[in-house]
UniProtKB/TrEMBL annotation:
Transcription regulation in keyword set: no
Keyword tags: Pyridoxal phosphate
Protein name stated in the entry: plant cystathionine gamma-synthase
GO annotation, biological process: methionine biosynthetic process; transsulfuration
PANTHER family (UniProt xref): CYSTATHIONINE GAMMA-LYASE (PTHR11808:SF80), TRANS-SULFURATION ENZYME FAMILY MEMBER (PTHR11808)
PROSITE patterns registered for this protein in UniProt: CYS_MET_METAB_PP (PS00868)
Organism this protein belongs to: Dreissena polymorpha
Entry keyword Transmembrane: no
CDD domains: CGS_like
A GO CC term attached to the entry: cytoplasm
Pathway recorded for this protein: Amino-acid biosynthesis; L-methionine biosynthesis via de novo pathway; L-cystathionine from O-succinyl-L-homoserine: step 1/1
Assigned EC number: 2.5.1.160
Family: Belongs to the trans-sulfuration enzymes family.
Organism classification: Eukaryota, Metazoa, Spiralia, Lophotrochozoa, Mollusca
Length: 414
């Protein structure tokens, strides 16, 4: 037996029959060993390995069938750990994590749709989702019908065709903060044997347990509230039925959109504090929304926690704890007013994304839903006006944010 000295433990480690003294430095450098000290790390180590050793050829298929580890693209321990955590929050039959929210959405659409299928989706919707349905999938023979966001589920029902295969929604929707009645949406899908998929990113699993309403697929951009610190990109899909999880798992492997071990580790760390962060996001957003609603340079505010929100009662029914940290505000003065406001904030930051500890603002008409994605006519149809500003309220002192917004609004010329 050969022995390798471990300076961290003041003792000798006995290793398999390898004569290290006979090996070249090239071999020694590539033949490191993990020495188990007999205790388990509290935080799972990041498993960077791109491939895994097997003892014999017959083990290959067995390990794959048992969801073991063969190759990094097919899965890794860090992704598995965070999938279990998200699935526990969602109450699903299984979760998969992806390289981004759009990787999750695109993979699901590719997996469950084919040429000749029909989708019904709300408008507005996240700009990249709009692009995927309206332009990319259209090239492959998938047709989409659009219904106004915030409509009764009956509007979806009226648009169903014999080839309708997917009902897609967001709640709250990006960027207008309209809500979708999840209970009625789930019932419609099940009664007509049509798959339902909901992007619940703006709410997070903490505020809105989507699967319990009978939704087939709950999607989150984990970059946002689940990660919570603006330091990773990831997405997830949680399934109501195991059969859909299994099918998506196979497509995920072939599409190559598995989350990296490092991002999986960061995401799991973020999830551990979501129950602490979200209440503060929501308290701050409520206070900021109430301030902005009373400001003379603001036309209106859309926040589910405000009584003025047209679906406030629905929000109280399905957003089970609090109303999230997202809101939109219409600044008077059109495009010049909106740009003047976001470009003069100091504590808040002008940046896309949301759900981090920092307050972020963005101007949809010129940024996320701008001309690179939507035409003026498409934005008008979606209700995205020139003065609209989306705000992700962070964890700062809300009174400091209100002072910052007050001085920024002074730059708005009417």
């Amino acid at each position: 037996m050969s022995q390798l000295w471990n300076p961290a433990r003041s003792e000798l480690e006995t290793l398999p029959d390898i004569d290290f003294s006979s090996l070249s430095i090239d071999t020694l450098a590539t033949s490191t060993r993990f020495i188990n000290p007999g205790t388990e790390p509290l935080v799972a180590p990041i498993t960077h390995s791109s491939t895994y050793k097997i003892k014999n050829v017959d083990d290959y298929l067995r390990i794959l069938q048992e969801s073991g580890y063969i190759y990094g693209r097919l899965g890794n321990p860090n992704s598995d750990a965070v999938e279990c955590a998200i699935n526990a929050l969602e109450g699903g039959a299984g979760t998969l994590v992806f390289t981004s929210g759009m990787a999750a959405i695109s993979s699901a659409l590719i997996c469950f749709l084919q040429a000749g299928d029909h989708v019904i989706c709300q408008n507005p919707v996240y700009s990249a989702t709009f692009d995927m349905l309206d332009k990319i999938l259209k090239k492959f023979g998938v047709e989409t019908s659009w219904v106004p966001a915030g409509s009764d589920v009956d509007v979806y029902a009226q648009s169903i065709r014999p080839n309708t295969k997917l009902l897609y929604g967001e709640t709250p929707c990006n960027p207008m903060m309209n809500l979708l009645n999840l209970e009625e949406f789930g019932k419609l899908g099940q009664s007509r044997a049509i798959m339902t998929m909901v992007d619940s990113t703006f709410a997070s699993p903490f505020c809105q347990p989507t699967i319990k309403f009978g939704i087939d697929i709950s999607m989150h951009s984990c970059t946002k509230y689940l990660g919570g610190h603006s330091d990773l990109t990831a997405g997830c899909l949680t399934f109501r039925e195991v059969k859909n999880w299994k099918l998506m798992k196979r497509y995920q492997s072939s599409l190559g959109v598995q989350l990296s071990p490092h991002d999986g580790s960061l995401l799991l760390r973020g999830i551990k504090t979501i129950h602490v962060r979200m209440p503060r996001h929501c308290i701050n957003a409520q206070k900021v929304a109430e301030f902005l609603e009373g400001h003379p340079k603001v036309s209106y505010v859309m926040y589910p926690g405000l009584k003025s929100h047209p679906q406030h009662d629905l929000a109280k029914q399905q957003m089970t704890r609090v109303f999230s940290g997202m809101l939109v505000v219409e600044i008077k003065g059109g495009i010049h007013g909106g740009k003047a406001f976001v470009e003069n904030v100091r504590l808040g930051q002008l940046a896309v994304s949301l759900g981090g500890v920092e307050t972020l603002l963005q101007h949809p008409a010129t940024m996320t839903h701008g001309p690179m994605i939507m035409s003026d006519a498409e934005r008008k149809k979606a209700g995205i006006t020139d003065g609209l500003v989306r705000i992700s309220v962070g964890l700062e002192d809300p009174d400091d944010l209100i002072r910052d917004f007050t001085q920024a609004l002074e730059h708005v010329k009417l």
